[in-house]
Amino acid sequence: MAYKTLMTVVTDPALAEGPLAQGIAMAEAEDAHLEVACFGVDRTQTGYYYAGANAMILQETLARAQKDSEAAAEHVRGVLGKTDIRWNVETGVAQLADIGRSIAAHARFSDLVILPKPYGEGHGAELEPIIEGALFDGRVPVMVLPDEFKSTLTPVRVMIGWDESAEALSAVRAALPLLVRADAVHVVVVDPPVHGPNRSDPGGLLSQFLARHGVKVEIDVLAKTLPRISDVLARHAGDIDADLIVMGAYGHSRFREAILGGATRNTLESTTVPLFMAH
């Protein structure tokens, strides 16, 4: 499998540099098409306004969102116009509460969506539902780039966060084109269950699957020496100098992750390494 249709979403040109650069580099390497959806976000909460003001406020916010969308599209066209890849730019307006569905409709026929990290200073509230819309409703793998990422990524050393879940296996399958080209792939298992079916060989079946695809794979079994599994994975990624982390996304419900936290949310908040995720 190859990535022939790549997609990114731009709501803020200030956060577009990394995803656009990565999309361009992958489109060149894969002979792929890059689609860019430039969305203006209507943040109106109409129920909060007094009667009679809604229509006026709605019109104003829609006009502002449309202007933001067109400004983002102009910026993106300026960047892509200097390349030789195949690309297209679409504009649109979406309400904050509905932007995930809008993104899913665009993303579902893509092979990979490339997005900025959703959390951090200057990051709009729309970035989280954009990622979730692509993962859940679009059923597309997502590459998330941290703020510090300014170049392009051809992974050399990849770390797989492996917990035997369906989400993690989906991420591995979707990442195979990248894994096959990497110099080293580490399957990382944190505190494997003592009484699990694979207790004598944690990660062994996955490694066998990958090796048959020609992946240069090894298994790292780690103890949970930090309070959160995401912290253990982050520390190990630094220890092995990983330049990409592959992991399943949202093994629990999105509501539970949002309220109580979880490996996906914690990793998205703190990662300094690009993530490749699937649900």
In a few lines, what is going on in this structure?
The protein is an alpha/beta fold.
Which key terms come to mind for this protein?
279 residues; alpha/beta; 10-stranded mixed β-sheet; 10 strands; 40% helix; 22% strand; globular
How are the SSEs ordered, and which strands pair?
Elements: E1 5-10, H1 17-30, E2 33-42, H2 54-80, E3 86-95, H3 99-107, E4 112-116, H4 127-137, E5 142-145, E6 157-161, H5 166-181, E7 184-190, H6 204-211, E8 217-222, H7 229-239, E9 244-248, H8 254-260, H9 263-270, E10 275-278
Parallel strand pairs: 1-2, 1-4, 2-3, 4-5, 6-7, 6-9, 7-8, 9-10
Antiparallel strand pairs: 5-10
Helix pairs in contact: 3-4, 7-9
Count of individual beta strands: 10
Output the strand order for the largest sheet: 3-2-1-4-5-10-9-6-7-8
Number of helices: 9
Helix content: 25-40%
